[in-house]
Amino acid sequence: QVQLVESGGGLVQAGGSLRLSCAASGSIFSINVMGWYRQAPGKQRELVATITTGSTTNYEDSVTGRFTIFRGNAKNTVHLQMNSLKPEDTAAYYCTAETRYKRNYWGQGTQVTVSS
């Protein structure tokens, strides 16, 4: 079992920055990939960024160059640095972890609101 807790969401003006953090606990050594998804009202949940245990990263096209996913000093933490935020980035952001057993875990979500 893996538990995920997000933090760092909030309200920011367009062009501003926010950093989201995700702390994993439980069977963290079984995790292969961690990442962030987001879901805006009335839309499907979409991938934002992922990072593997080997630090290979992957980004959704609309955030490439603006968002950076990276691991914290603690092995069980992942951060999402979001710069040049746009109103269309407004969504609930969810941390996710996939284990070597192909099980997926989700955090409770943190709201990001970008005002124009």
Descriptive overview:
It contains no helices and eleven strands. It starts with a strand and ends with a strand. The strands form two sheets. Strands 2, 4, 5, 6, 9, 10 and 11 form a seven-stranded mixed beta sheet that branches. By secondary structure, the chain is an all-beta fold. Helix content is 0%, strand content 58%.
Blueprint (SSEs and pairs):
Blueprint: E1 2-7, E2 10-13, E3 18-26, E4 31-39, E5 46-52, E6 57-59, E7 67-71, E8 77-82, E9 91-99, E10 104-106, E11 110-115
Parallel strand pairs: 2-11
Antiparallel strand pairs: 1-3, 3-8, 4-5, 4-9, 5-6, 7-8, 9-10, 9-11
Can you give keywords for this protein?
seven-stranded mixed beta sheet; mainly beta; 58% strand; 116 residues; single chain
